[in-house]
Amino acid sequence: MSQTKTRLDIGCGNNKVPGATYLDFDVKAKPDILHDLNIFPYPIADNTFDEINATHIIEHLNDPIGFMREMCRILKTGGTIFVETPHFSSRVAYSEPQHTLFFSYFMFNNIINGLALEVVEQKITFYKTFRASGISFLANKYPDTYERFWTYMFPAENVRLLARKKAA
Question: Is residue 103 classed exposed, middle or buried when 0-12, 13-18 and 19+ CB atoms within 10 A define those classes?
Answer without folding.
Answer: buried
